[in-house]
């Protein structure tokens, strides 16, 4: 039923079978008979910005990227993306390892877990413009919610990076090839913004129960949550799923495809109508254009949760009909692929800064969309985040207990309340 959502993994497996024994030494064995590959961590990627470091790219530099996979497994592989690049990118070396929990430095790795990554059996690889790169599997046992550190070396200028611009996680950049260094001191630059070129991590496990992909905006991306704490609501949903499972149970992974500023009907580079947002490449393409890369290409996807629409209201003053039409189209395409399609209501934003960012007319649009979603029978389920986060005394505003202070993004407690409200039987 879900073969179409796993086309990448199936295609790779088929190609390697046909290739015969030449790649056997690279670790492409079938593994345990009941094991399967599933995405355990992912992020949405975009084009480098029009200026700054993501435009200049990386030259003779290493990056050390910290992620937290959701479900564990016996083997892992990573996915790199140059889909928004402007030229071929050379990966000079790559490693994975677990974080060193004995030190406070997030850039330090546990050297006993260090694994060299290869690509088709080679230690270096090229990603041509617009392409992706899947590593060979490596044996590395990951537990549920274990931190993973991916280190990549780029010997030649990459040009504008394909990257995720709101990691809410410290990542690190340093000169020359540092991918095998246990300590992170040589990574002299801390970047609080970005995961560079890394788009996903897969695990092979006999506990796989598919993946849940959350297609969202900054509220899914975790804007205003605590840095380095994994308090985004999809993170906390994964924690609930794992905590509630019996040891014998299979647990779905949760893949966060949130992208700060994402809109259903507009490009990220498109300025807002009220002038409060100038437009940036890192906000990405319109959400319908993101489906093939950010959702359908994920490994083992079975459920899709769509959390979108608030930016179309406050930035672009779209009508309820325009927003509903786009959400219906997302739903139709998700269901056409045999996947479960869930949707969330649009949360309050009165008080957000900027002239005319919130108006009574925009609030009426939000209410109209939410009313439609609550009554619609088209979706596989509705997560009523508006009900969870709104102020009972002023429903057009966030509950002060959940307001990060900007009046649109929840704080850690708000993200926790969102995750706690999700019926687990609806996403298992």
Core attributes:
GDSL_Rv0518-like; 23 strands; five-stranded antiparallel β-sheet; alpha+beta; 428 residues; Rossmann fold; disordered N terminus; SGNH_hydro; six-stranded antiparallel β-sheet; SGNH_hydro_sf; signal
Describe what is shown at a glance:
Keywords: Signal. This is Lysophospholipase L1-like esterase. This protein has about 425 residues and is of the alpha+beta class.
Characterize the overall form.
Answer: globular
* Largest β sheet strand count, sense and barrel closure: 6 strands, antiparallel
CATH fold annotation of the largest domain: Rossmann fold
* Strand segment count: 23
Strand content: 25-35%
- CATH architecture field of the largest domain: 3-Layer(aba) Sandwich
The CATH homologous superfamily of the largest domain is termed SGNH hydrolase
- Give the low-confidence spans: 1-32
Characterize the quaternary organization of these chains.
single chain
Q: Evaluate the radius of gyration.
A: 21 Å
Domain tally = 2
Helix and strand arrangement:
Elements: H1 7-19, E1 36-42, E2 46-47, H2 53-56, E3 61-67, E4 73-81, E5 89-91, E6 93-98, E7 115-116, E8 125-127, E9 132-134, E10 138-142, E11 148-154, E12 162-164, E13 171-175, E14 189-191, E15 195-196, E16 198-205, E17 208-216, H3 218-221, H4 233-244, E18 251-258, H5 287-296, E19 301-307, H6 310-314, H7 320-336, E20 340-344, H8 360-375, E21 381-383, H9 385-389, E22 390-391, E23 394-398, H10 412-421, H11 424-427
Parallel strand pairs: 17-18, 17-19, 19-20, 20-21
Antiparallel strand pairs: 1-16, 2-12, 3-11, 3-13, 4-9, 4-10, 4-16, 5-8, 6-7, 6-11, 12-15, 13-14, 22-23
């Amino acid at each position: 039923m879900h073969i179409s959502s796993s086309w990448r993994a199936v295609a790779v497996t088929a190609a390697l079978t046909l290739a015969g024994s030449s790649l056997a030494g690279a670790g492409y064995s079938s593994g345990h008979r009941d094991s399967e590959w599933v995405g355990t961590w992912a992020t949405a990627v975009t084009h480098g910005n029009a200026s700054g470091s993501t435009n200049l790219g990386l030259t003779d530099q290493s990056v050390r990227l910290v992620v937290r996979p959701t479900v564990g497994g016996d083997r892992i592989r990573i996915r790199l993306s140059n889909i928004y690049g402007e030229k071929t990118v050379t990966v000079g070396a790559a490693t994975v390892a677990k974080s060193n929990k004995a030190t406070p430095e997030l850039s330090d790795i546990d050297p006993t877990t260090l694994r060299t990554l290869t690509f088709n059996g080679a230690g270096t690889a090229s990603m041509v413009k617009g392409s992706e790169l899947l590593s060979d599997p490596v044996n590395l046992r990951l537990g549920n919610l274990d931190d993973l550190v991916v280190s990549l070396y780029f010997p030649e200028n990459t040009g504008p990076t394909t990257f995720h611009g709101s990691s809410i996680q410290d990542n690190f950049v340093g000169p020359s090839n540092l991918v095998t260094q246990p300590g992170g001191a040589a990574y002299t630059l801390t970047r609080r913004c970005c995961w560079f070129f890394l788009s996903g991590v897969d695990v092979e496990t006999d506990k796989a129960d598919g993946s849940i992909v959350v297609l969202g905006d900054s509220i899914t991306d975790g804007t205003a949550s605590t840095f380095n704490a994994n308090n985004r609501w999809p993170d906390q949903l994964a924690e609930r799923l794992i905590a509630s499972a019996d040891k014998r149970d299979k647990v779905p992974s949760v893949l966060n495809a949130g992208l700060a500023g994402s809109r259903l009907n507009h490009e990220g580079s498109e300025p807002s109508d009220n002038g409060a947002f100038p437009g940036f490449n890192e906000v990405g393409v319109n959400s319908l254009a993101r489906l093939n890369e950010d959702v359908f290409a994920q490994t083992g996807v079975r459920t899709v949760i769509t959390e979108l629409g608030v930016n179309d209201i406050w930035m672009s003053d779209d009508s309820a009909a325009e927003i509903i039409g786009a959400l219906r189209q997302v739903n139709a395409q998700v269901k056409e692929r045999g996947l479960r399609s869930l949707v969330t209501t649009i949360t309050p934003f009165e008080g957000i800064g900027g002239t005319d960012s919130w108006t009574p007319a925009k609030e009426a649009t939000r209410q109209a969309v939410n009313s439609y979603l609550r009554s619609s029978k088209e979706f596989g389920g509705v997560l009523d985040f508006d009900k969870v986060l709104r102020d009972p005394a002023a429903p057009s505003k966030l509950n002060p207990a959940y307001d990060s202070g900007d009046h649109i993004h929840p704080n850690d407690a708000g993200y926790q309340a969102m995750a706690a409200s999700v019926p687990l039987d609806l996403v298992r």
